[in-house]
Amino acid sequence: MNEIQLHDKQFSVSIDASKINAAVQSVADRINADYKGKNPLFLVVLNGAFMFASDLLKKVTIDCEVSFVKLSSYSGTKSTHIVRELIGLDEALTERYVIVVEDIIDTGITMENTIQKLIHLQAADVKIATLLFKPKSFRKNYTIDYIGLEIPNGFIVGYGLDYDGLGRNLPDIYKVID
Ligand code: 5GP
Ligand code: MG
Q: Which CATH number fits the domain that encloses residue 120?
């Protein structure tokens, strides 16, 4: 299944499952080394990160906790920037070591917003783990602590990421054919 069609677009395999697995393992190895004895709280950003989080957490061997948040977006009243709320965060973050788990960081705007909210909730430390990163698209200057794979610009689907609802269940990552 090297090429697939979702809605009106054609996609071809870009990163296969074994390459994804190696990237997930390398993120887990680094987290296992850095967080021993710290009982980090993984905060998984739904929906896109569900598959990465599931595979990552099976490879995390230290004590840890896991929670899930969703981002709702709506137009802000003060500017044209999108204001996002974290939904579903029911733990106290005070003094916690938080690791935000994302599927992909593109421009970086979404994650910047999320981090600001978590710092406001007085987490002791907030770090970022993303499976995918598009360095040529990134417009911010914060540090992304754990990156699975750097990828070129271009729309991808699979392994949690969707195109208009479809494609999240695919075990490989596909890139749109222009
Ligand atoms: P950012 O705010 O960093 O520009 O974008 C972050 C969000 O945009 C991601 O969490 C994801 O939902 C979406 N996104 C960015 N690039 C892609 C892509 O190539 N494919 C899909 N399916 N979603 C993407
Ligand atoms: Mg996402």
A: 3.40.50.2020
* Average pLDDT value for residue range 89-114: 93
Query: Could you report the per-residue pLDDT of 2-26, keeping only the tens digit for each?
Result: 999 999 999 999 999 999 999 999 9
- DSSP percent split of the chain into helix, strand, coil, nearest 5: 20, 40, 40
> Does some domain include residue 121?
yes
Probe target for ligand 1 pocket from 104, 134, 147, 151, with the most ligand atoms within 8 Å of CB: 104
| Percent of all residues in the chain with a pLDDT value above 90, rounded to a whole number | 80
Task: Please tell me whether residue 98 adopts helix, strand or coil conformation.
Answer: strand
Assess whether 164 carries a catalytic annotation.
no
What range defines the domain where residue 76 resides?
A: 17-151
pLDDT class for 88, splitting at 50, 70, 90? confident
Distance between CA atoms of residues 85 and 177, nearest Å: 33
- The protein residue with its alpha carbon nearest to ligand 1, atom 23, reads 161
- The answer for residues whose C-beta is within 8 angstroms of residue 162's C-beta and 6 or more apart is 47, 48, 168
Structure tokens at 83: 């204001």
Catalytic residue among 8, 55, 90, 106: 106
pTM, rounded to two decimals: 0.94
